[in-house]
Backbone:
């Protein structure tokens, strides 16, 4: 429903303006007749009717130009527009004079006087149409013909017609049209929703959810982008099968391993055991660990013997059913969970392996955290695996190294380097270390340098241009968190040791086979090299969810992929260019990319340093 709730008025307006359909002008004349090759200009392409008109015209084969605020230019080009004009800096009428457009659709009420109509005339071909959806009082002076200098100026109020609306719903169902939702407001915030709808800065539509009256903090920009709509009643379980992605065999090569995952319509529901929770998954998150699992990279830790299985470790949704002896949750609760590599993939695991890339998953309740009512599911869906990894690497928490040793003890004044600060675990580790009062350096691709500076990192290294080992050699760092799998041989281990202080720690979350030769102590040149796989523990995850709720921590989402696009999501998660996490929206088939919110840690409320759970300042051992 959330995919079509914003469709009727905006969709009918755009559709009838471009193709007439069952509509007509306010004077009863036919409207647009856009065909392949038509030159179309959409004023206000970011708005409700505007972004739909851009998509419809592009689908028809028209050459589309649009005017938008600067923040929406990239989005319009992604939608297929041939040209996107920043109306704040450029005069579209001057730029496009003499270019003979067939149709201008005005979604902003631009032509408010005769002078502006004359300027628009210079952009249209003879016989071209200027169709306005608002502020069209000036057209009345043109008389019944609506003609000015051989061009036609028409006002449009859409006709509510079920045949046209059926056609639009069919386009959405076929994936040919995407009604983008800028934000979802609860029922108590209709005033806010109306103000936002006319402010002109939204991307697409503003929805109102009648099922909830949550406080203002529950509003979510960029949805979907990721909708987490409050449910009016507990979900009713009435099926024995579900849709899911399944892995039928492992492949050591990434591309064929990912591409071999199959989407299946009638997968048996996972059995619900003692102390387990069945969750209706709304969002899951793609992680490099998912790719490593299906390529067999973890075969030295555990050997997957159950095929086919459903990949995916992170999920957020609602509790659909409870197994015996569950006392922590109620059916209908919003939850987020980590299925865990060690917990679900061990040979004697009572569930799994994994299981999040499905409509439903089963998880022990001690690995599940309650999501506060004023936190959107999309805000925490990417948190579990990446957040637990970063948290336990820096502060140990309930985690330990693969050899059973404590991990980090980062505190005020600690010198921390995060390799891959733009990645899922990396960007969370940067924020956490800064909150603890550490001095933070990070390596990122050039496109993420400014973002890391905005987050508050004291030093940001573009790894494409600078060798971080040479740059930081001899600086006596307390801890290096490797989120990219950099140290692959003893030569690189030795080089990294020159950056650490004696007793300092190098903690790697992937590609740590080179550490096997160092023995149980992991010692090299007086420094400690440790591999880690995070422990899926609700106590640590509860703390992370609380930080998100308190705005101490932000899980940045690079993009949200539809459920049909798991292959794409996994490829993106390991490409190394994303900012933050890649989410999968189980309730949606389409794909959205958006710029992450580069919120500065310095702009978030502080109370000394980031509060650490259990009343601890990390755990003993290392830095």
Residues:
């Amino acid at each position: 429903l959330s995919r079509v709730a914003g469709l009727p008025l905006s969709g009918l307006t755009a559709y009838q303006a471009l193709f007439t359909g069952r509509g007509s002008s306010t004077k009863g004349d036919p409207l647009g007749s856009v065909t392949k090759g038509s030159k179309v200009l959409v004023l206000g392409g970011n708005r409700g009717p505007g972004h739909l008109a851009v998509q419809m015209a592009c689908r028809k084969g028209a050459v589309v130009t649009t005017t938008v605020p600067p923040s929406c230019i990239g989005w319009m080009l992604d939608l297929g527009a041939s040209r996107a004009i920043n109306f704040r800096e450029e005069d579209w009428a001057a730029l496009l004079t003499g270019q003979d457009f067939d149709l201008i659709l005005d979604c902003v009420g631009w032509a408010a006087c005769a002078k502006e109509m004359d300027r628009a005339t210079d952009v249209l071909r003879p016989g071209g149409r200027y169709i306005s959806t608002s502020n069209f009082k000036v057209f009345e002076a043109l008389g019944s013909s609506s003609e000015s200098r051989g061009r036609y100026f028409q006002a449009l109020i859409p006709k509510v017609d079920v045949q046209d609306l059926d056609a639009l719903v069919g386009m959405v169902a076929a994936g040919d049209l995407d009604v983008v939702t800028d934000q979802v407001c609860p029922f108590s915030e209709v005033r806010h929703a109306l103000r936002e709808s006319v402010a002109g800065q939204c991307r697409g539509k503003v929805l109102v959810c009648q099922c909830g009256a949550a406080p203002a903090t529950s509003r979510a920009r960029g949805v979907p982008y990721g909708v987490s709509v409050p449910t009016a009643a507990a979900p009713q379980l009435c099926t024995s099968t579900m849709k899911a992605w399944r892995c039928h065999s492992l492949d050591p090569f990434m591309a064929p391993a990912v591409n071999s995952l199959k989407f299946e319509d009638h997968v048996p529901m996972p059995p619900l055991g003692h102390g387990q929770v069945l969750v209706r998954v709304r969002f899951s998150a793609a992680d490099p660990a998912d790719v490593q699992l299906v390529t067999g990279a973890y075969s030295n830790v555990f050997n997957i013997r159950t095929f086919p299985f459903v990949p995916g470790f992170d999920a957020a949704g609602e509790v659909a059913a409870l197994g015996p002896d569950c006392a922590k949750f109620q059916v209908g609760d919003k939850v987020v969970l980590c299925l865990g590599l060690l917990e679900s993939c061990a040979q004697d695991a009572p569930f799994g392996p994994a299981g999040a890339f499905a409509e439903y998953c089963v998880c022990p309740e001690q690995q599940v955290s309650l999501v506060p009512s004023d936190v959107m599911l999309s805000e925490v869906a990417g948190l579990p695996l990446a957040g637990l990894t970063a948290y336990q690497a820096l502060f140990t928490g309930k985690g330990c190294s693969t050899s059973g040793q404590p991990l980090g003890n980062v505190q005020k004044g600690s010198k921390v380097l995060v390799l891959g600060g733009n990645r899922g675990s990396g960007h969370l580790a940067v924020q956490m270390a800064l909150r603890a009062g550490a001095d933070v350096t990070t390596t990122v691709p050039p496109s993420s340098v400014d973002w890391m500076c905005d987050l508050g990192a004291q030093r940001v290294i573009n790894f494409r241009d600078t060798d971080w080992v040479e740059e930081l050699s001899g600086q006596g760092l307390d801890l290096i968190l490797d989120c990219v799998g950099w140290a692959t041989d003893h030569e690189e281990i030795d080089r990294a040791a020159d950056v650490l202080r004696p007793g300092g720690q190098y903690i790697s979350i992937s590609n740590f086979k080179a550490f096997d030769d160092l023995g149980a102590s992991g010692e090299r040149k007086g420094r400690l090299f440790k591999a880690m796989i995070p422990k899926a523990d609700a106590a640590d995850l509860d703390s992370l969810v609380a930080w998100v709720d308190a705005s101490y921590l932000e899980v940045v989402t690079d993009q949200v992929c539809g459920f049909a696009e798991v292959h794409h999501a996994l490829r993106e998660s390991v490409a190394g260019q994303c900012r933050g996490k890649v989410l999968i929206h189980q309730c949606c088939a389409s794909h959205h990319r958006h710029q992450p919110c580069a919120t500065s840690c310095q702009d978030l409320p502080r109370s000394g340093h980031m509060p650490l759970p259990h009343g601890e300042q990390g755990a003993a051992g290392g830095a």
